[in-house]
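Dear Dr. H.,

I hope your travels went smoothly. While you were away I took the liberty of generating a structure for the chain from your last submission, since the lab meeting agenda had it listed for discussion. I wanted you to have the full record in hand beforehand rather than looking at slides cold. The sequence, exactly as received, is reproduced here:
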Amino acid sequence: MKRERCVILGIPVQDGAGRLGCEMGPSAYRTAGMPAALSGLGYEVEDLGDVRIGAVDPVAHANDAIHHLGEIRAWNAAIADAAEGAAGRGFPIFMGGDHSLSAGTIAGLSRHAAREDRPLFVLWLDAHPDFHTLETTASGNLHGVPMAYATGRPGFGDALPAQGPAIPPANVCMIGLRSVDPAERAALADAGVEAYDMRALDECGMAALLKGFLDRVAAADGLLHVSLDVDFLDPGIAPAVGTTVPGGATFREAHLAMEMLHDSGRVVSLDLVELNPFLDERGRTAILMVDLAASLLGRRILDRPTRSF
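The corresponding predicted structure, in token form, is as follows:
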């Protein structure tokens, strides 16, 4: 029997990254079997194709390191509109594309949540917090700014205007951090984001860290958006990313997180970002990411009925 509808949307942006290849991500997810995996779980699947942008107006900024600001501004507006529309059609899965896309998806989803009069929470699974502003980024790669943008940090102004209500920093949880710049570390502390590095994951375990956050989402009757970066995973199991950082989440830690998220019943949307098929090995990373999405949407090894004793 059919369950709810999954809406898949490709976002082939690579202007926020430091190397080419992420624009091939949406095609790789489709090739790796995303539609079949979802339909096999009983979902109706609607593929909305890929988001596109039109003409780009150049945007200048005092930080000379920044590049492709005009392109990211155009992508941001287009993605926000597409995400808001997709949220009204079912459970959207945004297949990227570099992580700059999340500035747009979260903006669109925050507009949808505001109409529903529900608080929006964000689980950020990433080696990086992406908490730079246009003023603090040294690399100029704008996949490093989406969470600062989404939470309304100052430093964007008219160059990258808000597309939706800002997410309260207290509604954000980051797990898997292991590459954080000094400016981001200070900004995270100032904002009060719930942020866990790999030491916290090692010491406490995935279940304890995630359960605490999910309990907070449930207490607020919130909607939860999950943004999953390939580099959350250890590069030994997921090599297809241009920002590899050793010591990431294991296969089982990642699947446990997805299974707990499904069990919570709170997740309403998912980003899959930073897949660079040019760097993959026979599609292994794309296949793993599809498998993780399937775990989040209900695939399980065994049913676990309540036993009577």
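Two observations you may find useful: The domain at 5-296 is CATH 3.40.800.10 (Arginase; Chain A). The two ends are 32 Å apart (CA to CA).

With kind regards,
E. W.
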